[in-house]
Design brief:
Elements: E1 3-7, E2 13-17, E3 20-24, E4 45-47, H1 53-56, H2 59-66, E5 69-73, H3 74-82, E6 88-91, E7 96-98, E8 103-108, E9 125-131, E10 134-138, H4 148-152, E11 158-162, H5 171-181, E12 185-189, H6 201-211, E13 215-216, E14 224-226
The chain binds nickel (II) ion and manganese (II) ion.
Length: 227
C-alpha cells in the first residue's frame, strides 16, 4: 500500500495512509511557503505536537470544516475542543492509541508549549505513527536529547527532524539526533519559514549522507515521497 508524505512547509505534513488523510502540525495561513490553503486541505485526522501558533493555529478551522479528529496531548485536545472542534483525543506522554489507520503515540520533546491565548499547553511532544508496517517519527519542536536512542530502539523507518536552529535544534545537533534515532530515511523540517530559520538543506543532506547511516529526503513545499 505505502504511505505518501507531502511536506506542507514548516513542520506540516500530510500523510496518506490507505484512504485516510492525516495532517501533522498544519501551518498554512501563516507560512509564506505553504503550498496550499487551510481552506482547501483535506483531513480525517490532525495530529498536533504542541500549542505554539506555528503548529496549531489553523487546526480549529480545518477540523471544523472537515470533521477531522484532532489528536494531541490532553491539554491540546482540551483547548481545541473549547474552540468548537467536536472530535478530539487527548493522550499523554508515552501513551497512544490505535485510530484505524495505525497507532499514534506521544514522545517527549524538549521545548515549551503555551497555547495561542496564553493558556497552558501541557508538555510539548513528538509523535510516533505505526502504520502499514512502517514507523514514522515526527520530532516536533525539540532540542537534541539522548533519550532519542530509546525512540530509535522502536525501529524508525522515517524520522522527521527540525533543522532550523533558533527555536529548535539546528543542523549540527540534528546529525547527532539521526545517529541516535538510526532511521532508514530522514526528512528536515522547521526551516526557511522565517528569516531566523534559514538553512541550506542541500548541505545538510550532504552531511546526513557522510555522517549517518540514513538516507536524506529533502522535499520542496508541496513535494511528496512515497514510503
Ligand atoms: Ni514551538
Ligand atoms: Mn515551531
Amino acid at each position: 500500500m505505502g504511505i505518501k508524505a507531502t511536506w506542507l512547509s514548516h513542520s506540516g505534513f500530510q500523510l496518506e495512509i490507505g484512504s485516510h488523510k492525516i495532517l501533522i502540525d498544519p501551518f498554512l495561513s501563516g507560512s509564506q511557503l505553504a503550498p496550499t490553503s487551510a481552506d482547501d486541505i483535506e483531513a480525517d485526522f490532525i495530529l498536533i505536537t504542541h500549542g505554539h501558533g506555528d503548529h496549531i493555529s489553523d487546526t480549529p478551522a480545518i477540523a471544523k470544516r472537515t470533521g477531522a479528529t484532532v489528536v494531541g496531548m490532553v491539554e491540546i485536545a482540551g483547548w481545541v475542543s473549547n474552540q468548537g472542534v467536536e472530535s478530539t483525543v487527548g493522550n499523554n506522554m508515552g501513551g497512544g492509541m490505535d485510530h484505524g489507520f495505525g497507532r499514534v503515540e506521544f514522545t517527549p520533546a524538549w521545548h515549551s508549549s503555551s497555547l495561542p491565548d496564553g493558556s497552558y499547553g501541557g508538555m510539548p511532544a513528538g509523535i510516533i505513527i505505526f502504520a502499514d508496517g512502517l514507523t514514522i517519527y515526527h520530532a516536533g519542536d525539540t532540542a537534541l536529547f539522548s533519550d532519542m536512542q530509546l525512540i530509535g530502539d522502536k525501529g524508525i523507518d522515517v524520522a522527521i527532524v527540525p533543522i532550523g536552529d533558533f527555536y529548535t535544534m539546528g543542523p549540527d545537533d540534528s546529525i547527532k539526533a539521526v545517529n541516535y534515532l538510526k532511521p532508514k530515511f530522514v526528512l528536515p523540517m522547521h526551516y526557511n519559514t522565517f528569516p531566523v530559520l534559514q538553512q541550506d538543506a542541500a548541505a545538510w543532506a550532504d552531511r546526513i549522507h557522510k555522517e549517518t547511516g540514513a538516507e536524506p529526503i529533502v522535499l520542496d513545499p508541496g513535494g511528496a515521497h512515497e514510503f
